[in-house]
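Sequence, please.
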């Protein structure tokens, strides 16, 4: 069952509204309402009102066979922003001229449907598909595959650090005994003892 809500002649451009309507199509209604509340745009505020109205319409107006639609079961089927009539206004320009200002309007339409329950398809764990299929270009038949040879080495050998060069060790020892300044120290730095 479909539920509709509409806001006609909204004083905003349809281009601006479409940016937000693209974000909520296909989402559950409650999730779409939360997303719209977090978007800091005028269009989002207007769409939020229309979406809340559509959810209220679903809960209150559609009581066919004592079955009420719940907000948890609703999905946004379509969210459309069509162009409404454009109000033409005038802005004065230099030398007695004028320029036209187009004040655009939009018609925002949202359609909700009842979500179909999704059944998870569980694949039995014991059954596997044959992944190796014989190709027509291969000259060897599938049955003549070479058996895998198992080795005792692991696929990725452990990283072993090489022994440092003795000349490097002497250089490091010399650095510790020298009176050179550590990184970031300045020779004219005043300490509290001075």
């Amino acid at each position: 069952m479909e539920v509709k809500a509409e806001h006609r002649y909204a004083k905003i451009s349809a281009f601006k509204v479409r940016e937000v309507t693209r974000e909520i199509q296909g989402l559950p209604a409650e999730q779409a309402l939360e997303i719209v509340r977090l978007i800091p745009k005028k269009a989002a505020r207007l769409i939020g009102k229309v979406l809340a109205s559509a959810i209220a319409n679903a809960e209150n107006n559609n009581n066919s066979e004592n079955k009420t639609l719940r907000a948890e079961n609703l999905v946004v089927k379509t969210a459309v922003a069509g162009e409404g009539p454009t109000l033409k206004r005038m802005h004065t320009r230099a030398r007695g001229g004028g320029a036209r200002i187009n004040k655009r309007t939009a018609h925002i339409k949202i359609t909700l449907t009842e979500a179909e329950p999704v059944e998870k398809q569980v694949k039995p764990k014991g059954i596997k598909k044959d992944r190796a299929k014989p190709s027509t270009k291969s000259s060897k038949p599938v049955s003549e595959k070479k058996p895998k040879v198992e080795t005792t080495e692991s696929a990725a050998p452990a990283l072993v650090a090489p022994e440092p060069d003795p000349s490097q060790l002497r250089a490091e020892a010399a650095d510790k005994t020298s009176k050179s300044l550590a990184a970031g120290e300045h020779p004219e730095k005043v300490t509290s003892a001075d």
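The radius of gyration is 36 Å.
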